[in-house]
Amino acid sequence: MDFGLNEEQEILKKTAHNFLTKECPTSFVKETIKDEKGYSPELWQKMAELGWMGLIFPEQYGGMEGSFLDLAILLEEMGNVCLPGPFFSTVILGGLPILKGGSDKQKEDFLPSIVEGKSIITLAITEPCAKYTPNGIEVRATKSDKGYILEGTKLFVPDAHIANHIIVVARTTEGTGADGITLFIVDSKTTGISCSPLLTIAGDKQFEVVFDKVSVSKDNILGAIDNGWSVIEAIWPKVIVAKCAEMVGGAQKSLEMTVNYAKERKQFGRPIGALQAVQHYCADMVSDVDACRYITYMAAWTISKELPAIKEASMAKAWCSDAFKRVTANGQQVHGAIGFTEEHDLHLYYKNAKSWELLFGDRDVHCEIVAEQMGL
Amino acid sequence: MDFSLTDEQNKLRQEVRDFLDQKLKSGAFQITSNGWIESFSQDFSREMSRKGWIGMTWPKEFGGQEGTYLDRAILMEEMLRYQAPIGYHFLSDRQVGPAIIHFGSKDQKETILPKIINAEVSFALGFSEPDAGSDLVSVRTSATEEGDHYIINGQKVWTTGAHRADYIWTLVRTDPNAAKKHKGLSEFIIDLKSPGVTVRPIINMAGVHSFNEVFFDNVKVPKENMVGEKNRGFYQIMAQMDYERAGLERLMQNYPLFEYLVEYVKKEKRNGEPMCKDPKVRNTLAQLEIEYQIGRLFCYQVAWTLTQGRLPNYEAALCKAYCTQFEKRLSDAATRILGLYGQLMPGSKWAPFQGDAASSYLWSVSYTLQGGTVEVLKNIIAMRGLGLPLG
User: Fold this and answer.
1) Which fold is adopted by the domain A7-119?
2) Domain containing B350: what range?
3) Residue B360 belongs to a domain
4) d(CA A96, CA A222)
5) Residues of chain A with C-beta less than 8 angstroms from the C-beta of B382
């Protein structure tokens, strides 16, 4: 057993922390989430130059071939500063399915351009019924002369407005199960695709994406026809744990902000951090943050070792969903009214905690998976 | 990072399991919550001793195995999973021995450590007093020098197992005039058979005689029974606390109840359906599983830190605060899942799992109090871990 990071990981963590603290201050975050684009192309390029987009992709595509654990460390630092932009969409939701299910040509076409920061990709999986399960996939892909016609509405699609390509999870054969689902990599400029922005609690960019008789070729299929869900299933623990890693970073920062505030803020002639009521909030917060960290890194390690990680991933997401929310709520209570303002930074974390709780399933969703894994 | 165990560590775990399986089959003990501390068997402890499982982390020169704290965590995890009867040596192994190794005299090391390792003596811990609970520095039991002896007068309370142990390890006041209260305390080993010692049972609300009041009326204790430096007792205790706080015994006192519940809901039917199909039951047990796994990671993190030769900072206090609260939630969830059966006490007709749920629910009150209340632990986390000012 070893709860520590190795030397390279320490360097990665430190480099990422220093870079993001400088390049992504909260003033930048606040501006960016109010901006329509929701990211900075300049910063995006700098991140690509650091090799971040290629961190877990194989060297043959220009990547660094790091482990999933390395990626988790990087994501933790991104969550720590509330980095806005399409990193998660492009690398996790876009890149991982291509790496898993793509043909050699598709990997050649997309992965190097992701690594170089030239391509933004997202995944359109959820629909108005808002489920991450096969029975939530109703968008149809009907066979045509030239290939397939996509028809239907995807909802909560992140970063669709800036994505060059969208991976669409669609039904090629009638039914409600996993069989009959196919993935398509679609150019976002294809005729018939229209995006409408949603106003989200955290200010991240999510869209309704309507497919109105969108014609795509057979070459756009990612993985096997009717067997696209297996790709989603294979990458899903990574998606979930990647989100948890961001939550660890966000929770850590919320704790630090709160403890610092408790040391500075004076009431009754002394720092409020000397009050046991406040101390106990803070102690509860550390407990939650450390728990988030260990359960998330255990899952990330399990994935890195290519061991089955369904249970570990769901344990992490179930816990982090509640705990990050609790940490930010306790943080708000300690901060008092100032935390409730836009001027202060805490709201960024409070909002991310809620947003990320709901993304990819909350505690109840993941407890059900854990129950299954326990043989119940 | 690495969350796996080495082949050797896995081998150790298997060896412990095989041993316990065999003991269980032979009827040497029964799996019930709190059995690890309430079941007191010198014979069983002697067998543990022969295996090298007492004093596992101690230096070889004192008869130990020089195993790591991770080895000990693995050993303890299995002992607790089975609730093996290790009450005879548990406190000596965890706490008394290490304290003697750190602070004891050459003579104490030579005479007492082998006896602990060979399961020849059993210790109780005498810290709390009626007016010194969380505020331990207020202990009043006094030790007055008189020739080659100290004379002890006063009272200890909540002393687990004092009615079964041979010795009591105490914190007493040697300097009543010290400017600061914590600078007048010393540690003593006192023979419980000494004239003037009276042990009076306290029956806890689970109906069990586990702890006691211990009275000292002019008890003569040889000077060589003082451990470490005079008036440094409080510092010595604080230095030892991190070793004792984060053991798996804080997570697994009622662990068998959890395994029982998971099997119970698979078999039991409500409205014609197995209980495990009920979404609420599934959710409750999954949440407990997650919380248990986190507690386990906390315990192993501390064991790993100690194995690295470093002392945990706030982590031991955090671990204990978290884990004991889990134990409490577990016992409450168990009684609710069992419904009306959840109220049946040990010995009752119809009691599921020997009445463990109801009994554990009562015991669980003590879990978040013993060895530092959750609130005191949170103060430690806040002040030592986060650097918040003294309250």
Assistant:
1) Butyryl-Coa Dehydrogenase, subunit A; domain 1 (1.10.540)
2) 246-385
3) yes
4) 12
5) 273, 279-280, 282-283
The minimal CB distance from B388 to the residues A5, A273, A298 is found for A273
Least Cα distance to B173 among B144, B196, B201 occurs for B144
Q: Do A301 and B378 touch (CB under 8 A)?
A: no
Q: Tell me, yes or no, if B229 is annotated catalytic.
A: no
Q: Which of B38, B187, B244, B327 is catalytic?
A: B244
What are the domain boundaries of chain A?
7-119, 122-228, 230-373
Q: Which residues pair with B167 in a beta bridge?
A: B123, B191
For A268-325, the pLDDT digits (tens) are: 999 999 999 999 999 999 999 999 999 999 999 999 999 999 999 999 999 999 999 9
Q: What is the mean pLDDT of chain A?
A: 98
Q: Among A90-104, A111-125, B28-42, B152-166, which is the least confidently predicted range?
A: B28-42
CATH number at residue B326: 1.20.140.10
Contact yes or no for B368/B328 (Cβ under 8 A) = yes
Distance between CA A46 and CA A30 in Å, rounded? 20
Round to whole Å and give the CA distance between A26 and A38. Answer: 14
**DSSP secondary structure letter of residue B272:** T
Q: How confident is the model at residue B241 (pLDDT cuts 50, 70, 90)?
A: confident
Contact A282 B382 (CB under 8 A): yes
Please tell me which residue of chain A has the smallest CA distance to B283.
A367
Q: How many domains does chain B have?
A: 3
Cα of B253 to nearest chain A Cα, Å: 20
Q: Calculate how close chain B gets to A322, using CA atoms only, in Å.
A: 11
